[in-house]
Every structure is written in C-alpha cells, then in structure tokens.
Amino acid sequence: MHSIHVRAAAFSAALLLAATVSTAALAQKKYDPGATDTEIKIGNIMPYSGPASSYSVIGKTEAAYFNKINAEGGINGRKINFISNDDGYSPPKTVEQARKLVESDEVLLIFNSLGTPPNSAIQKYMNTKKVPQLFVATGATKWNDPKDFPWTMGWQPSYQSETQIYAKYILKNTPNAKIAVLYQNDDYGKDYLKGLKDGLGSKAASMIVAEESYETTEPTIDSHIVNLKASGADVFVDISIPKFAAQAIKKAAEIGWKPAHFLNSVSSSISATIHPAGFDNAQGIISSAYLKDPTDPQWKDDPDIKAWNAFLDKYYPEANRSDAFVIYGYAVAQTMVHVLKQCGDDLTRANVMKQAASVQDYVVAGLLPGVKINTSPTDFAPISQLQLQRLKGNTWELFGDVISGDVGG
Questions:
Q1: Do 278 and 233 fall within a single domain?
Q2: What are phi and psi of 400, to 5 degrees?
Q3: I need a labelling partner for 378 at 20 to 30 A (CA). Which of 140, 276, 320, 369 fits?
Q4: How far apart are CA 361 and CA 296, in angstroms?
Q5: Are both 180 and 79 inside the same structural domain?
Q6: Looking at the domain assignment, is residue 409 inside a domain?
Q7: Residues 218, 101: one domain?
C-alpha cells in the first residue's frame, strides 16, 4: 500500500511540474493583433496600378519569399500571412488601405509599403495607432526620426545621402559644372534636391542653373527636358521614377542634349528604365547601388545570385531577372524575416520595433560586399552605404569605393 502512495505522490508532483512549465511557456508567449501560435499577419501597400506600377514586382517578390519561408516551416513555427493591397501610388487610397489592414485585417505590422507621398499620408496614423510602419520602400530622410515617429523605419539609403555623394563627385571632377535638375514635385523629389544642395554647399546657388519639377499626373515630361537643355547645363541630375526617367533619357538623346547624367538609384532598374529608354541613349549615365545587379557579369558565379536564381526558379519563375526591384524585394524580405525571428515568442508590436532597432552588422544576401545593416534606438536608417555605377553596354559597372553618406536623422 505504502509504495503505491509514494508513486502516486511522485506522479502528481510530476503533473504539477508539467503544469508549471507549460504555464511558464504560455506566459512567455506575448501576442498583439496579427500574431498567434500559428500565424503572423503582415500588411503591405504597393502601386499595382498607376504611374509607379513598375515597382509592383517588389510586392510580388516579397510574397514569393514569404511563401518560401512558409514552405520551409515558417518563422519559429508560425506561417506568414502576407496581405498586399493596391493604392495606385495615390495617398488618399493609401490611407484607406492602411486603415483596412490595421482595423479589419488586424495585421501585426505594415511592411515595406511603397513611395514617399503614400507613406507620408499614413505616418501619423500608424504612429498614433502604435502599429509598426516598418522598412518602408522609400529613401526619404524623414523615416529616420525615432524621437517623433518611433513606429516608422526606413530601409534603403536615404535620398539625401545619395545626392550628397553625387554632389561630392561633381565638385571633385567638374567643379565648374552648370547643373540642371529635374525632380518630382513631392516629398521624394524635394528630399533628393535638398541632399544635392547640401552636398554642393555654398556653390549650389551658382552651380544649379535650372530646376524643373513635374507632377506624376503629367503624361510626359518632354517639355521639361527641352527647357533644361535650353539652360546650357552640362550636368543633369535626374530625380524621377522609372516611367519619367525613361522619358528623360529618350528625350535628351532625341534633342541631342548630352550632359553628364546622374540618375537617382530608385530608377536604376535595367528593365524598368534603361531598356525602355534604349541602351544607346543611356550610355555613361551615373547612378549608385547598394544591391548586387543581377545583370552584372561579375556576379555570375556569386553564391548570393545563385541562391536568388534558385529561389526564383521555385517560387517566382515568371520574374524578370534583369529587374533590380526583384533583388530589392528579396533583400528587404530577408531583413523582415530576420527581425521576426529575433522576436521569438514575443510578437508584440513594441517588441517588433525593439528588435528592428537593434540589428548589428547583419549581412543580407544580395547587398554589395561591405554593405551591412545596422540600426539602434537612435538610428532608424538601416543602410547608409552606396557605390557609384556607370552604364556600359547593357549593364551597370561599379566604380570607386563603397561610400557612406553623411546625413544624420
């Protein structure tokens, strides 16, 4: 009788212990809307239609990458449910989609929504709601403002640091240049323009001889290019999205204007900009990069590009492999997965931001050698390095060193 009693006591102690352990495990799991034991819901807003629709492959690539992660078992056992909506690059529609994602779909966060005007339209809302607006697909400098907007974070190098690098190059190589600028008349265009002027410093006023701004609703920017040529400028700084960048390259060639042409990196895609503009028209254009260009023969046997091709074969076979936006989507999606892995079982919105703000020297497959991702609670600019590149033949050729732009938050 006695021995049975001891065994029963030991058994109930074991039960008690098991109960305590599972309660502790449950206690460690913390969820906000959008996260459960089995799922992480991620929202996204892309211009699948409208003037910026060439960027929509970013959303398609991200969806494919998350499918790959899910097929491989998910993140700490949870599957990603990626809900990507179209806003046509129209800020009022962005607001509508953000509300839908946060209030009806109840996503944990909004990831890599595209465009400066669209993200500007939802920034206050996201921060008031305390929902992460994470790794936005725009290089505007204002996403790096953790003090005023602790729920918004950029990803790519800031526009101002990019045009500062062009300014340094112009001052060094053609100090007497006459510069003409085309820019999109919104926060994105003005941010790049500010970087250029800051980079030229006291010489900006004398060196910039013409500025033309365009609206995304204009069917063509041909007349702006004609005006810029008339200014007598010998350097052209082109701050435009792919549709208009292709028009600018074509029109300049058509009217025989051959300035040194600096093209913002957001339009450096071979397939979205250069191919439609005509390779002959684009020779010698200078841009900058932080991602490996899949069309560059130097990466032919690169393990990153091999892995990227294998991923596309399996999950996104119809992708255009000469499109830089496909490698962009691949790289930023990896960063998102890295942060979610770091969150462990604490999938609260506050912890997502905490983990996003503590990334150190993270190497993403697809970034140029030497470019790493770094963030801190006071630095919401994950990538700050770029390398200059020049169009030669039908691909970009990198030159010079990897340079850091010196723009603070």
A1: yes
A2: 75, -170
A3: 369
A4: 25
A5: no
A6: no
A7: no
| Structural domain for 20, as ranges | 2-29
- Domain tally, the chain: 3
Is residue 8 domain-shared with residue 67, that is, in the same domain?
Answer: no
SS3 for 398?
strand
- Are residues 189 and 120 part of one domain? no
Using the 8-state DSSP alphabet, how is residue 158 labeled? P
- For residue 72, give the DSSP letter: T
Query: 399 and 273: one domain?
Result: yes
Give the pairing of strands 260-263 and 235-239.
parallel
227 with 265, same domain: the answer is yes
- Give the span between the Cα atoms of 250 and 271, in whole angstroms: 15
What are the angstrom distances between the C-alpha of 313 and each of 62, 301, 308, 406, 407? 15, 16, 9, 39, 39
Q: What is the pLDDT along the chain (409 residues), one digit of tens a residue?
A: 454 455 555 555 555 555 555 555 555 899 999 999 999 999 999 999 999 999 999 999 999 999 999 999 999 999 999 999 999 999 999 999 999 999 999 999 999 999 999 999 999 999 999 999 999 999 999 999 999 999 999 999 999 999 999 999 999 999 999 999 999 999 999 999 999 999 999 999 999 999 999 999 999 999 999 999 999 999 999 999 999 999 999 999 999 999 999 999 999 999 999 999 999 999 999 999 999 998 889 999 999 999 999 999 999 999 999 999 999 999 999 999 999 999 999 999 999 999 999 999 999 999 999 899 999 999 999 998 899 999 999 999 999 988 886 554 3
Asked whether 180 and 235 are in contact (CB, 8 A), the reply is yes
**What gap in Å lies between CA 128 and CA 123, rounded to an integer?**
9
β-sheet with 39-46: strand ranges across:
79-86, 39-46, 109-111, 133-134
Taking the model in full, what pTM does it have?
Answer: 0.86
Q: Hunting for tokens 């929202």 — which residue is that?
A: 43
Beta bridge partners of 84: 44
Q: What's the DSSP call for residue 171?
A: H
The answer to whether position 212 is within a domain reads: yes
263 shares a domain with 181:
yes
Residue 330, domain member (yes or no)? yes
Residue 34 lies in a domain: no
- Write the single-letter amino acid at 221: I
Q: Which CATH number fits the domain that encloses residue 325? A: 3.40.50.2300
Q: Per the structure block, which two tokens stand in for 203? A: 């010489």
Nearest to 293 by CA among 313, 323, 315, 316: 323
